[in-house]
Specification:
280 residues; mainly alpha; MetI-like fold; 2 domains; 13 helices
């Protein structure tokens, strides 16, 4: 300890080795963290009981594997409403509308939930609303809205819109809080009015982040739209679960092949757009 104090008290700059040797010794804290994590893992594992793999489960896994290797090509290239392209198109349409509506609705919610812009109590109220929206899973929202709209694609759009608000708002708020206020001060000193400060000081900083967030949410919504179809909210999920229940594995393989190809294209597109936005 005396050596460390003498090193810190000297006027000459410390070397890398001396700085490393003068680091805080928190071995007791690291040991405590490891013990806490080990206790949590032990407690969590005590509630899990492994009873082996079910025979039916293995049959389904083998059927899906065979279906992916031998998909129904007639269904894969069928352009009727029962074909894979139409079902994928409906799934993408649900995701697009849900993402756009959710992204637009999230803008006022985000500004009202940011305590840098509105009073603290207003921000707390809207943060609680956003947290409540994010807390409820998308499947639960779908089951709620099915009672209102009926089992159709519109239910999927409404569900995706509501679910998107929670996640997008969180990312929007982060972008708004990271705004460089020095730019606004410079524009204010230049005599710019409020509209000009928003146009040239705020929007150029937040729009790239907003667009990147919406694209990322669209990627998630395409997957969610597939899941929502299982409960009757439109999309390819309904046809997929029907084929699985009737053990038509070649048709299952056709639907899954179409989904895999679709997600590859979406991933390539979204990655390219986000990287372009990041570079400016």
């Amino acid at each position: 300890m005396a050596k460390t104090k003498s090193l810190l008290a000297s006027d000459r700059p410390l070397t890398i080795e001396e700085t490393y040797n003068a680091r805080p010794r928190l071995w007791w804290l690291y040991t405590l963290i490891v013990l806490i994590v080990a206790a949590l893992l032990s407690w969590s594992g005590s509630s899990i009981t492994y009873k082996g793999l079910a025979t039916k489960g293995m049959t389904i896994a083998q059927g899906i594997g065979n279906g992916l290797l031998h998909p129904d090509t007639n269904l894969l290239f069928n352009l009727t409403p029962e074909g894979v392209p139409y079902q994928l198109l409906q799934t993408v349409a649900i995701a697009v509308l849900g993402t756009l509506i959710g992204g637009i609705l999230a803008i006022p919610f985000s500004f009202l939930a940011c305590d840098k812009i509105v009073p603290k109590w207003v921000a707390v109220v809207f943060q609680a609303i956003i947290l409540g929206i994010r807390t409820i899973p998308s499947l639960v929202w779908a089951l709620v809205w099915i009672r209102v709209t009926g089992p159709n694609a519109f239910c999927g759009v409404v569900t995706e819109s509501v679910c998107s608000i929670g996640m997008i708002c969180k990312m929007y708020i982060t972008a708004i809080e990271d705004i460089d206020t020095r730019i606004l001060e410079s524009l204010d000193a230049s005599g710019c009015n409020g509209f000009q400060k928003i146009r040239y000081g705020i929007l150029p900083q937040i729009i790239p982040n907003f667009i990147s967030t919406v694209i990322y949410r669209f990627d998630i919504n395409v997957k969610d739209a597939t899941t929502l179809g299982i409960v009757g909210a439109g999309g390819i999920g309904a046809a997929l679960i029907q084929c699985m229940n009737s053990s038509r594995w070649s048709m299952v393989g056709a639907y899954l092949t179409g989904m895999i190809v679709l997600m590859i294209f979406i991933e390539l597109f979204s990655t390219k757009v986000r990287s372009k936005l990041a570079r400016g």
